[in-house]
Fold each of these.
Amino acid sequence: MATRAGVTMSSTVDIGDIARRLNDAERRVFVRWERKILDRIKRKWRNWEYKGRPDGAPVNVSLSTWTSRVQTTTGAVLTVENLIGYAGYVHRAGLPSIAAGGKGVVGELVDEINANDVPKMTADLRAEVLRNIATPRRRRQVAGGRSPATEDTTIRIEA
Amino acid sequence: MGVAVPVRLKSIEAVVMAAHGRARSLSVDELDIVDEVASTVTNQIEEDWPVDTSTSRDGFYFTIQSAPGHYGYTILNDVDYVQYIHAAGTPAKPELWRTLIPRTVAEHLTPMLTRLRFAVADTQRALAFEAAKPKGKQRLSEAQVLSRSWRGRKVA
């Protein structure tokens, strides 16, 4: 039976009881960590053996489909995902597959990120929140849910 | 509705086609360049975006296209009112995304294309080196070469 195994990893940073969105400075700290974590994943997601892959077949496909987003309106949530159907099954040649009880590359990444990045990201963000907690911020007015762009809301650039 | 700005790197597709003889996927080093620029562009757009609830600002993300013969990146925002947003004190049209996103993309385009041309040359050198290895010597396949970083490595 074939199953799809895209990957979504979400981390909600515990920054205490602030009942507001992150301000610009706090958001910048969070976005820097978003970038670091995504880079860690992409650096590990390479050097594949591609055994038996014919010349000319697409490669680095799943590398290019890693994406990340932050949500900063209520608290701080970082989501990193790869929705390509086999990402969750990927393992290094010579190591056990997921079916055989192996962790896979995603499992290794989750361990690394939780051990190395999440504690530092939490500490950095908390420090920035504490620094800003009493400082009022200027707000800007802006005109006006979710859905994909249409042809009218797409601009194509070629270079 | 949301917005999308796909940036297609046709000039680099042509460079690869001329150097490689056929379309191929972007190598890891080439992908890193596109990724870095797409990230910088997205961050800059977010910095310049007006903020109220910041839902629309959080909605910006990018995807990368690296398949044989189709290279580029796309800046997207799926928040369904984002196409109507304009900065306070400016007219409702043209909407902010129509000017800010293309302008930010344009700022980073030429340096990216230059870096990519150098990266393509390095990748092709690595591919040629492996292909020229005599029989009996361990040789990386094209897929393996494209999946490794050659930055800073001396090839041939």
Amino acid sequence: MNSLILLFAGVFATICISFAGFVTKSYKDFGSLTVEQNDDGSKFPPARAGVAIRGQDVYRAQGCAACHTMQARDRNDQVADFQRGFGKRQTVMRDFLYDQQVFLGNVRIGPDLANVGVRQADRSWHLNHLYNPKTTVPKSLMPKYPFLFEQRRVKGAGSPEALKLSGEFAAPSGYEIVPTREAEELVAYLLSLKAEYRLFEAPFPIEKKVEVNGVQPDSAATVGAKP
Amino acid sequence: MTSATQDKETAVPAGQHKVQPESHEIDASARWPVAALLLHGSFWLVVGSLLALVASIKTHGPGFLGGVSFLTYGKVSAAANAALYYGFACQFALGIGLWLAARLSRCVFIFPGGSIVATLFWNAGVLLGVVGILAQGPSGYERLEMPLKVVPILLSGLVILGASLVGKMFFRTEKTLYPSSWFLFAAIFTFAWSLVAASLVVSNPAIRAVVKPAVALWYANSFQTLWLGGMALAVILYFVPKLSQQPLVNSGLAVFAFWTYLIFGTAGGFQNVAGLPNWFGQTSHVAALLMLATAVAAFLLIWSKSWSPKKSKEPEDEWVRKLVALSFYAFVAGAALNFLHGTRGWSALLSFSLFGQGLAQLHLLGFVTLAFMAAAYHLLPRISGETWPKPALGNLHITLSLVGIALILVGGLFGGWVHGQHMATPQMPFVEVARKIVPFIGLGTLGLLVFLAGQVLFLAHLTLLLYKSCASCCCAGRKEVA
């Protein structure tokens, strides 16, 4: 194979096919995704509030995707995503339709976050967890992000936004810990991560109910998305 | 061979250098461009290994350098990847690729200053990229973690270096295009195309975010498999016949290995991604299976009569032989594990575990780094005109590197298995899952520490060699290295 021209032609053709197959096909398929509208007028995926969209950039900047994924896997006998509350169905690209960036992630040092807004809907919990994860999960290995918060002197009755911390984590006497704008945006984004609505391409899996002690199960749950 | 015979046999185009230059002439012309790339690459290898070590410590010791906004785990690990892949691996690939292209094409460097300027551009881009990650956070795209605004700076350097590499092949005085040259050409072409295409897509706000993950994964696979992996295979296929002084067994096998590697390599990278349609993962899984054919072909090509280790007088020949062999083993092991990783049972167990990181480390450290180190140990004495000043340093570097890599891989691959087992147990809280893998991450930390120590020694040894070369060049004529 001594001809550089032929080598170039072969390499060019191969890369072209790969580019067409993955890049342009992705553009064609995902670029044309639209929101799904049910008969009652509800739309899925739901749009995120502006503060949550800004929170995506905070999520990116802090490198959260290095430890957390946002892709729940379809249930089979070998994964525990649904049992862990990571979602009720497979994650699909349409879930990220309104996002400015998609953070699929590829390793779970920490839990999957695709459905964290359902699994943990308490704003205060998330703020405390970001400030110091050990305030909410004592054995957590997640690093703390105190620079997303501000320690300031208490004025009057104190800020209603101040974190409620106690023990070794409490602010020094006369001071309070208040989330910065970035912390608020990040928590708003995390609270917006909900994946328990049905989509046509991602129906809920069939729930099999097993007879226990001679008692027949109730009728099987209906599955699938809207017609 | 007379010049008339050369003209007749090489049939060179008009205007081309008609007499084949000698090896020492080629090496002399390659001296500063290649040395600049490898010296800078070695520096970034140390920096990247240090950043990776810090990131690894933070995984099991979150209080380590904790609370510092520019040293979060996410930023440090992304910066480590940028330093290792773009600072070290790319520069070694480019430097070794230029030297291989010059040697295989029997073509001198016409304008070495241009390559040196390109090297400065590349390093400026990497520096800005690493600092940008620590300051602003990663971009969020694997293998494109640097702020995307530095890509044009990198491309400025890549265009010059790539043109130099391809230009040598086009204006070659050696008629034959060897298998290594095929891999060199495919690697540089793929890298340039995929870097431009991917960076344009992911940085374009007019393109929907849902399009970008697939493009980023396509780029990450092209970068790792075709660019770095292709360059490493070029090195292996160059050194095996060279050190054994026998040709490769079968040219048909070489052609088969090349085209299967290219075709199936371009289709990989989408295994174990749940958010994309199933056909992405299934295509990659089939490609991973067929890539085993490439591994078998390469094995047959290399591991038969053509490869008969001979005792050599020069210490670097033994280093090169050992490193090339281990690199090839890592390539074969990586191909097999990559395929198994995508099978239904293994995928369910190992997706999102440390196993994926272990595979990436096997590829970068086991396959690519060992091949590049082999090439560096061989070519640096030749371009500098000096022998390695402290063979004991070379032995220690290789020993520490191999021990470090082994520890890192055990931590990643076996730790990934344990990680996957625990993730599949819903009764175990996730915080417990994370704690169960701490010993394996700790093993990886120890491995990185040992590996880092080895690379510091290599950088020191390389600096000594270049200093010795400069000193002897200034004081007297250089002695020719055979």
Amino acid sequence: MAKTPPRANLLQGTLDMLVLRTLLYGPAHGHQIGKHIQRTTNDFLQMQHGSLYPALHRLERRGWIASKWETAPDRNREFKYYRLTDKGRKQLTVEESQWKQMAEAVARVMWPAAEES
Amino acid sequence: MHWWQIRKRNADLERELKSDLDLEEEDQRDRGLSPEQARYAARRAFGNTALIREHSHEAWGVAGAERFWQDVRYALRQLRRSPRFTLAALLTLALGTGANTAMFSVIHSVLLKSWPFPDSGRLVVVSQRQANGIANLFSTQDFLDWKRQGGLLSGMAVHVSWQFNLSAAGTQPERVAGAEISHEWVSTLGVEPMLGRSFAAQEDVAGSGNFVVLSSALWHDRYGADPQIVGKPILLDGTPHTVLGIMPANFNGFDGKELLWTPLQLQAGSGVGSSPNIHWLTGLIRLPDAFPTRFAR
């Protein structure tokens, strides 16, 4: 997806998890979600909109997020706000534990404990 | 998804992309770029909108059809790469289809083809409904009662499949399938004998004599298609029966196997099958033209 090397390539599942986590704070529209992730990672993860919108629609199709066109509080314009559903909340905890297990496993291979080497 | 739903969803996506693109543009302008540059920067930061749309469509599963055809083409390529397997598979399919077609054509001609009688849509096979609701054939008494009562069923014809012993001096007796019929049977079916005639009402009365109508097939096989046979007797079950007529070619009665017909000559209270408990007659009526078929049920 990314052609320029400096940008980190996120796996599809990981991006889903990050989006769900972002929405845990409250409803947001696509642009806000992208900006939030970018800010929180100090620009390390720059949201490619080409992956963000398909991710949002995928999550919506699975019923983990729901969308609604609403007027922004401080503007005169409407944006498509996404929010987390109950199913999505459950899915977030599932993916979170999976990610932790994965990270643990990788760490054990990469940096084995002293007594195993 | 219906096409109007797809259109709606695409429009929604366009709207979403546009509003967020505008936001991105604002951000760029906040960073100090001119409106022109801001728009370009926003577009670049946004990425390929066409790609976004394509991926979104993919997420919506509309690309399923394209993927299907890709799979088909892939399968064909694979088949071409292994010709022997392909040949074996094709032969198996051909054999299977051939066998099925053969079976169907037999079943079709035996079971499914409609009766070769004029306007067979108006022919109705009639059965009695017993007290327990099960359909049954008619007994002699019932048939005669119906005839007397008038109405639709008084014109009913009946028949029963029968077997006869056909014999003649100097030849082997032959067992022949046929039917005993009431005199209205031939006219109800709407078929005319090609030679001679079928039974008249007076020949359908017990004691009026012994008569027979032959099928064309039997006439050719056994009597050499001799037109002089009409009016002459043949030996049926040991008794001479006068041949009254010959039915046209390919007419073999109800089940397609009947080779000759004799009149039932039903009589209440006597004769074969006259017991009220014997239900042996299959009824047949032709609906009058004005009668809608569904009411006849």
Amino acid sequence: MDTMSLKAVESFEQVMGFYMPMVYRIAFSRLGNAHDAEDITQDVFLKYYRAALTYNDEEHRKAWLIRCAINCSKSLVTSAWFRHRASDEGLENMEENGEFLGSGGDIDKIEQKNAVMSAVMKLPEKYRTVIHLFYFEDMSVAQISSATGIREATVKSQLSRARELLKPMLKEVDF
Amino acid sequence: MNFREEYKSCAEIMSPSEEAMERMKKNILEQAAAPAEKKAFPFKRIAMIGGPIAACAVITVAAVAFLPKDGSDMVVGTVSSAAAAEGAADSYYMMDETSAESVRESGTTDREDSFTAAAADGSEEEHILKTEADAYDTAGIASEGGFPAAAQTAFEDFTETTGGSSDTTADIPVYATEPEKNTLVSEEEFIEEAADSAAPVSDNEGFTVTLESETVFDETAEIEVAPAEPSADQPAEPEPIYEALEFSPDKTSCFFMGYKYILDPEGEYYDNSQITLAGMIVRVIGTDMLYTAEFDGRALYLTDSGGKFIGVYIKE
């Protein structure tokens, strides 16, 4: 990553290859639908390419992409088309496709994974984003604050509330 | 069981497959290579934002333009009436200028003609008075003697109009209209009184105010102050009209409102209860004195301005 140029045009394919899974997961965590996540991912990188910005460092680039993914997800959620669609459709699609089941393994573990995922997906969108960035992307509260534009105190409170909501659903899990 | 480890293992499900990533990259590159679509002009956005603003502006302008002010029906009407008045004033001014130019060309004006006529009338009037005065002077009535024929005729005419007695005895003086022209006083006294009364000078003979310097007032300059001349626009205050009381030279009789009264030296006929004419101010002909006259139907009681009792004159 250190060798990648900070100019958006020069390292566009490399940036896509490196950050596309992150952007996809953020979009998926907010929308709960693979197809919508793909659309958001494509929109984010198109905007990245057309903006043609020059970033100070990689953290700056990463924060820009995270912010753009969150904003694009918000725009899609507030659109009339998305609001008139069933809310649990994405989750049902995932279950039908067997994505929650995974490629194999212990049933208990699979069921446990589904329980964790199901519990997280039941959280509000803003709590899901914070949980994902903190627990999956291993970002600190300050990094989450700079990436999302939310104050650190707010990030902490959202994390705390998310944990409180998850504890009843995940009694055997340690936060 | 750690939530972080569990969530990371679960979140792998949310990661895109290789096929999905290739598909997305292809689509992104194709769209990036394609020319950017021209955005349509945001008519809808402009209409949603600008429409209410324009409507508010139109309503405000209409309200300001057509709102009645100061009770008038229309602001436009007020403006038009003011313009009409101004135009009328301009036309009046124009008329004055035009008439002024014509006046300068002709050298005469209607006003001057009227002044000339008035002067002519005045001169006639003065001529009449002068004739009467001359008649008195000729007769020497101021001192003694009878009345000349002209004066007698004038007296008779006066008595006929006022209903007074037509007795033309030698002691009865002629009733004159102007005290300055009355010949009951001597000629010398009349001249002195005329000089003291500061009679107005006729025909532009008067004092004029002149300054040697136009910009700086020179205290050493001789300034002649002219007495205020009555202007045509400002009529002189009308002098109060008093009934005239005319005494005989020896003041043993007097003539008042067409009747002759004989002096009662004892003054025995004064009776307040019979007063029918009370506190009337009369002017003594030949003087500037004003008497207060009271009449009880038979006698005339005279008191001067200082309150001094003059006498009782009984109606003849």
